[in-house]
């Protein structure tokens, strides 16, 4: 029997327009809750780390100046290496979120599994290399005598924990990709709490000194790693996903991670180059720069919470093929980033006269740091925008663009630093260093904003 002809589809309604004649923006209920559910736990997890570092510094600091200097040097080397490996979380989160948004949970879990295995493999290699090259690394950092001995001791006792650290990074990315921000917060908070207790017992109770601090961190990282394994393995088995890694999946994770590592490397070089210029300007400028940069790093933890939420949410919505919601999320988080930057900038400006005396009694350092903090305060809205857009494009797996523009921004920043180093007058160097750094942030904001001006960066589907 022939079916009756269907009536032609009605033309879609024209988009509602504002009084000025422009198309009205679509309303998407639940955006605020969606962002906060991920951003607030991410903020807690991000804050847990600097709080732990402060407590650990206090524990080691009571051993003596050389022990503190050696541990500080070891922490810097370890932090630089692990910081370059943060791509394990940044690559895993959007890969998992995209498959999750597409409704393919087994593939999402498989992507996460491959990221975790890649972290473990890389961690084992770095641990062996780090143990063997610890004396050379300490020497390259300029350590001598007892300070070098303590730095080597710290590094070598830290190496057993490196595979666990990288596994934790990747596993955190898996859960965030599955839109779970609460579990990483609980694991981070509990892990760092246990870490502080272990360090105190091993440093003073067992008498291991600097090595005890590093060993406590290694043990705590493995405990965190085991918690993540205990959480992920049952999920994999329930969905009949093999525990063994896929060669193709490892290759995909490494490819995306390579671009993200290049992006992170460009940021690290910019920071190190800034420190080098501050060092060349003398002890007062370097000391003041350290104070201002400490505030920059502290505020970055708060601003980065939105970036973490962006990675998860953008990946999920693109996986679901929803460009409209992706666009709305991007606009909303950009506004939040700027407003949050205005808030943190106002707080810093109000405290700029108060903070430096808390860290140093030197009047010259206080004066230079105060001016630097005012410049940093003025740049906070730009920082907020940069952090959010960085997270948006990481969530969209646009790692190649981030890496290449990272190199471009670094190339633009280098001449500014050279001019600062050559032309800065005594007493004004720190001001111009931070003006140059603001120029670097503006370049990043321009290249990131240019990318999201249209929808070309949106690759939808699984």
TrEMBL record:
Entry's transmembrane regions: 35-55, 67-90, 116-137, 157-178, 185-207, 219-236, 257-279, 291-315, 336-355, 367-389, 401-425, 431-450
Residues covered by region (Disordered): 1-24
InterPro entries (alphabetical): DinF-like, MATE_fam, MdtK-like
Localization (cell): Cell membrane
Pro residues biased stretches: 1-10
GO cellular component, one term: plasma membrane
Keywords: Cell membrane, Membrane, Transmembrane, Transmembrane helix, Transport
Name this polypeptide is given: MATE family efflux transporter
């Amino acid at each position: 029997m022939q079916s009756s002809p269907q009536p032609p589809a009605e033309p879609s309604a024209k988009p509602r327009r504002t009084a000025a004649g422009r198309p009205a923006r679509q309303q998407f209920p639940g955006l605020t809750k969606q962002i906060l559910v991920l951003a607030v736990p991410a903020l807690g997890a991000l804050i847990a780390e600097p709080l732990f570092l402060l407590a650990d510094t206090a524990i080691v600091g009571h051993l003596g100046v050389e022990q503190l200097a050696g541990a500080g040097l070891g922490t810097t080397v370890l932090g630089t290496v692990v910081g370059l490996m943060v791509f394990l979380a940044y690559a895993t989160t959007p890969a998992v979120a995209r498959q999750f948004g597409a409704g393919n949970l087994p593939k999402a879990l498989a992507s996460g599994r491959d990221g975790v295995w890649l972290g473990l493999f890389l961690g084992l290699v770095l641990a062996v290399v780090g143990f063997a090259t610890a004396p050379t690394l300490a020497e390259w950092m300029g350590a001598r005598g007892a300070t070098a001995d303590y730095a080597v001791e710290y590094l070598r006792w830290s190496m057993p924990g490196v595979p666990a650290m990288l596994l934790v990074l990747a596993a955190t990315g898996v859960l965030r990709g599955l839109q779970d921000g609460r579990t990483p917060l609980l694991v981070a908070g509990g892990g760092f709490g246990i870490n502080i207790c272990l360090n105190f017992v091993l440093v003073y109770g067992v008498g291991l000194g600097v090595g005890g601090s590093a060993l406590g961190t290694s043990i705590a990282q493995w405990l965190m790693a085991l918690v993540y394994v205990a959480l992920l393995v049952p999920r994999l088995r329930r969905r009949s996903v093999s525990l063994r890694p896929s060669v193709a999946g490892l290759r995909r994770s490494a490819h995306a991670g390579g671009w993200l590592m290049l992006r992170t490397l460009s940021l690290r070089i910019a920071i190190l180059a800034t420190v080098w210029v501050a060092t060349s300007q003398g002890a007062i400028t370097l000391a003041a720069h350290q104070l201002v940069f400490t505030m920059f790093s502290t505020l970055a933890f708060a601003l980065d919470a939105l970036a973490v939420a962006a990675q998860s949410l953008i990946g999920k919505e693109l996986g679901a093929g929803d460009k409209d919601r992706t666009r709305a999320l991007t606009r909303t988080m950009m506004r939040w980033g700027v407003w949050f930057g205005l808030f943190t900038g106002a707080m810093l400006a109000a405290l700029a006269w108060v903070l430096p005396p808390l860290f140093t009694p030197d009047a010259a350092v206080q004066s230079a740091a105060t001016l630097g903090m005012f410049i940093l305060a003025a740049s906070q809205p730009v920082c907020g925008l940069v952090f959010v857009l960085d997270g948006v494009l990481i969530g969209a797996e646009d790692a190649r663009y981030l890496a290449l523009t990272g190199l471009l921004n670094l190339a633009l920043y280098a001449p500014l630093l050279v001019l600062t180093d050559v032309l800065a007058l005594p007493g004004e160097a720190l001001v111009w260093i931070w003006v140059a750094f603001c120029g670097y942030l503006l370049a990043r904001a321009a290249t990131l904003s240019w990318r999201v001006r249209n929808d070309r960066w949106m690759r939808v589907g699984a």
